[in-house]
Amino acid sequence: MVALSVVLGVVVLLLAVLVAGLLRSHADILKALHDLGAGVGDPAGDAAHDHGADGRAAGPVSVPLTMGPALAADRDSTSAPAVVGVTPSGDALAVAPATSGGLTLLAFLTTGCATCAGFWEAFRQPDHLGLPAATRLVVVTKGPEREIPGEVASLAVPGLRVVMSSDAWTDYEVPGSPFFVLIDGGTGRRIGEGVANRMSQVAELVRRAEVDARAFALDTRPGRDVGLDGPQRESANDAELLAAGVLPGDPSLYPKSLEDLYGPPDARLPSATRHVHRAG
Amino acid sequence: MTTMHAHGISAGLPSGFEGRIFKRSGNGIEVTNAVAQFATFALPDEVGDFGGGAVQLMGNDDIFAVLFEYGAESVGTRLFAHPGIPRKLSGADFQPQVLRRGITGQAGTQWFFTESGRPFTFYAVLGSHARRSVLVPRVNQLLAGLSVDRVPAPAGTGAPWN
């Protein structure tokens, strides 16, 4: 009887130690969660209780949250990585639009979407697309693991450059199909991207992007219209100055201060206003 | 570095290169083999095996290269006796007179070899012979990324009961 009581006491004691350990562990977890800003009740309320061990206010802690694949460190919204994949016939194809020199239009299409069907049809007549001359058109579908090469082949007219590459859809962060990306090979940058329902809209997108790129001097390819240079530029400048009555040795050609360039500070605004009125 | 693979040829492309690995469609009589073309400029749709239609578009800092496979009957011949892909070329390996299309200012090199039991030639063109000190290292980068799979034994050479 005594032995039984002793054994029972030991068991109770062990259970008590076990329960105490569990309670301690639970308390540690709750404390850690509290330090991270998670807890019961309104986190904005009763700030007097929200203090860490060092007495500072323990506000919410931002926890890094990543959605989707990590982006390479050298990626940005204008980068234009190479498109590498296979053709519907099983050949390998890699297109490097950032170094090709001219404009490259990437058309991200699928075989299933109804809107894409119009583009597949339009691409059967490459001379009627309305794209600027020498624009390289590359159709990008998802890879063979997501698209049936035979179906892609049946939609692609011979001569149309088609790359099947799921990686390219990820690289260019394509939100859906159809989606178009225009790249200027001269600068290696994306200069336009977006969705469209008809080929005429794409042609307009390309035209605007090309004009914008030219306006901001992004296009520095040889052979393009980059204006005069060298002696011809100097001669043109001389002609403009002579026409404006500025002869060689004119003091205005040798400014010594900002006032020489723009006039006295109080005279600048009226001068600008007169200019605006004259122009208007 | 991006990697492309087809027809038993793999190519790790250095930055700025694009390429294609393909086989021309046969006419039922002749056998076509793998062709791999690489360039630092936009490859046109129609390019001859050794760059016809492309080398005319090259700028001074451009490179065109092709890895061209010959038929199995060439294996073991003296022309293809060199074992393995050449991996390190020098500026002296590029000469204007090696060009298949003699375009002024350009320079070329050509090597015949057998890799993984398959006979190949590697032909490369520099946009400017004068710029070879800058361009040849880029060709060597391309060569470093090339690999060739061994072609499986053709049917009929297996076990006698097949």
Write a concise keyword list for the protein shown above.
heterodimer; A: 280 residues; alpha/beta; Glutaredoxin; 5-stranded mixed sheet; disordered C terminus; B: 162 residues; mainly beta; 5-stranded antiparallel sheet; 3-stranded antiparallel sheet; 8% helix
Can you characterise this structure?
The complex is a heterodimer of chains A (280) and B (162). Among the domains of chain A are: 133 residues, Glutaredoxin; 35 residues, no CATH class. Helices cover 38% and strands 13% of the residues of chain A. Chain A contains eight helices and seven strands. By secondary structure, chain B is mostly beta strands. Chain B has a single domain, classed as Jelly Rolls, CATH 2.60.120. Chain B contains one helix and eight strands, in the order E-E-E-E-E-E-E-H-E. In chain B, a hairpin with a 2-residue loop joins strand 1 and strand 2. The termini of chain B are far apart. The C terminus of chain B is likely disordered.
Taken in chain order, the helices and strands of chain A follow as: HEEEHEHEHEEHHHH
Largest interface: A-B, 23 and 22 residues
CATH architecture of chain B: Sandwich
User: How many strands in all of chain B?
Assistant: 8
Q: What's the shape of chain A?
A: flat
Which word captures the global form of chain B? globular
Question: Radius of gyration of chain A, rounded?
Answer: 34 Å
Oligomer: heterodimer
According to CATH, the homologous superfamily of the domain at 83-215 in chain A is Glutaredoxin
